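Sample pair:
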Amino acid sequence: MSDLKTKEEVFLKYGQYLYKKGYVKEGYAESMLDRENRASTALGRYIAAPHGSRDLVLISSLVIVNLKKTIVWDEYNVDLIFILAVNFSTSMTNQYFFKTLYEIIKDDVLIKKIKKSANLEDIKKILAELEHLEKTR
């Protein structure tokens, strides 16, 4: 759980995280802010899905941020953030990312499970369950 108070803090902290891990090039946090200034990435239902410039993405990745308290994100309140770093290098990767994100966002039970998750292992289990469900459909 993170105790950040603004979307700008989210961009800076997790943009730096992605950069230090080698997933994105320097400047990704700023590109998320630039993107957000053009159009809000708040999706409603207390969820936002910010992303930055695909030209700065080295390895496609998804960071799930579960906030301790809701923050104001444009006209919405948000407490669950899916930070996307996608370079669109393969259509299969893109389809997987967006399909997974859509499946999570539309499912109230999954959202509640993620919000109650205490750590990364819990979230990995939830995503594995989702992947298993998708394969059995």
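The longest helix spans residues 120-136.
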